[in-house]
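Figure-free illustration: sequence to structure, shown twice.
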Amino acid sequence: MLFGGFDHKIDKKGRVFIPSAFREALGEGFIICKGIFGKKCLCVYSNEEWNALVEKIGTLPAAKSSSVKRFLYDGAFSVEFDTQGRILVPPTLREYAGFDSEVHIIGMHTNLEIWDAETWNNEREDNTLESVSAVMEELNF
């Protein structure tokens, strides 16, 4: 399970350090892609989780799955860690997510999200105690 949040810098070559707990959970090879939940972040999936996502998308009617596939697959890349635990974020994804010099990495249970730090700070302001409490009430928790 992936959880926790970490701030890191992205270097001039587009490399970002991934914390060791996340590296262990992701394995050696994994997929990085555009976020698909209406947010301008990047998502990182282990190969196993990526395959599960692809399978779920395949259950949609063809008209819906085609548009999702075009969006998702067009910006998906297979990546690996370098010897220092960094990944190279492809330029098209850095541009899409608006990465500047600092990013915030969040474990989201089955995948990671990587946010531009400023974008994350704005997003975090929307996640208030009240908004989270309202969702938790729906769960009767």
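We now fold a second protein in the same way, so the two outputs can be compared directly.
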Amino acid sequence: MTDEGYFFVSCLRKNAIVRPIERLQLPENSLVQSDDMVVVGTTQNRIENTFRLLNVLDSKGNQLNLITNRFDLSADEIAELYKSLWAIDCFSNG
């Protein structure tokens, strides 16, 4: 998807294997717990693209690991985007 110019924000599967590359800087007042540049997968079957892994807390205090290929947005913008997408999904399925 990334190679074809598509962008995404999604929850990372709990069993995903992640190799951190670099910790990205967060502003002091960020709602995001961490923002890392990562590669996903094993060394034998690794996706060649680099992604961003954000650790955020939802409104109930549960930890979410968001994966995205958006490096042009701030961590807080990505978290808000996911929150908005989740609200739309809940609304359309509710």
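Summary for the second example: The longest strand covers residues 32-40.
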